[in-house]
Design brief:
The protein has 535 residues and is α/β, with parallel strands linked by helices. It is built from 21 helices and 15 strands. Helix 6 packs antiparallel against helix 7, helix 10 crosses helix 12 and helix 12 packs antiparallel against helix 13.
Amino acid sequence: MSKSGNESESVIGLWKFLENKESYPHQPESVKHIQTHISHVFMVPPFVYKLKKPVDFGFLDYSTLEKRKHFCEQEVELNRRLCSDIYLGVVPITKRGDAFTFSSESPGRIVEYAVKMKMLDAQYFLYSYIENDTLTLEHLDRVADKLTKFYLQQEPKDDVLQYGEIEQIRFNTDENFQQTESFIDKTIENEEFQAIKYFTDQYYEKNQSLFNRRITQKKIVDGHGDLHLEHIHISPESICIYDCIEFNERFRCGDLAADLAYLAMDLDFQDRRNESRYFVEQMAQKLNDPDLTRIIDFYKCYRGYVKGKVKSLQSIGDENSPEKRKKLQQTATDYFHLSLRYALLGSRPAALIFMGRIGTGKSTLAKHLCKVLKIDHFSSDRIRKNLAALPLYERPNTTEREKLYSTEMSEKTYQHLFEKTITYIESGRSVVIDATFSSRSTRSELLEVLNSMNSNYMFIETQASDETIISRLKARDIEKDIVSDARLEDFEKLSSRYESPDELPDKYFLQVSTQTDLPETLEILYRKLAGRYFG
């Protein structure tokens, strides 16, 4: 609905009033106006005034002055639970004639309400510690202590506990999927969308007793709902966790794991995976909640997807420049990829071993997953040539190939591959391994290494028909940037040497055909990995 001329003039007059430093009782030196999709924020040191936009998104309704007043009051009351000294109160803005003022006692009518807060020092936000590379485990310990006290002091009743029921949680996840369908092939690929949805549905089906236990143990709380890096302030004197969800109870109430998952996911997004795992483990210990480490990946997948959805929605705003729209779209894609990673791998360090006969597409799949999931890729072809100090994209002559693919060089190559894998897993990082693994003894050696480290892993055998392999090998003669030296002339010999992987345990082994195009192959692979979730 369009505004009348007088209403538009009134709104413009209000913004001019708020952007004028002379309007504020404390006479600030400057005014900085920031907009979000639901708020106007005026930074006037040492205070901040926050106004709610008159919008109705269904899940959020600020459409009337009465509602904006109510939610301003809710914001102050709820946020004082975790940030008692910052929220100063709700300030009415009145208008008489063309003049605005901050006072309910002034003559005139109230036209808007603002939440008044103390301004927080930017250097102490959690994201600032990460940007400056000064984040310590002590910072996370302080956050954990604050949240532990917050959760343990609650005695949730039925009106809160209901938000732990699968039907309530599913309502939120289904809503997310519905609201992002229009972004398929824009910020999220269809095979990624389908895999995350499949993982979510399967998790509900396979873990009903876990969700019920969370309710029985009263792990469902009236939480924060938006617990990410920008909302956590850690100064030497105090810790403030602010800007919780006030506009919709179902976004704020739920499993405490859903609350904690937001921060853990944000740390992962900033490539602080070890810190993320440390934080979750600390919370599990402090809360005496062993199931937390089990269910956290489900909620991290959910939180990552929500961020992808929000960034996607922000990207279509009319106010965006082409550059900003592109940046928001890429950020949305990055969050969707993180959500996919939780669905396929969980949070613990994992090894995906792509194996199979030559020409079956293992390197294509391995490289694609590395790019999407942001995992390092170790290829036996590359390692072999690097060890021999040979150019990657040049096929050696016959004599050099005999040395390069000798038994001694192969053993050296796989040993180097195993050492890299061990180093990565021990440092808390995941890895994708790309090699033929034609020998049972070589596979068994890696299996023993992975089991000794108690790590997550999956052997993925790529398969294709002889006709398809022959066609692909022929194409290598004219393709560039091919590291592998295998060609059609090697097909029979190498195929005869490939020993069927019957010895690999079913729990850690799956097969995928690469006969179809890449998106369809990926959809099948993702579904198989999500169905075997091993976080």
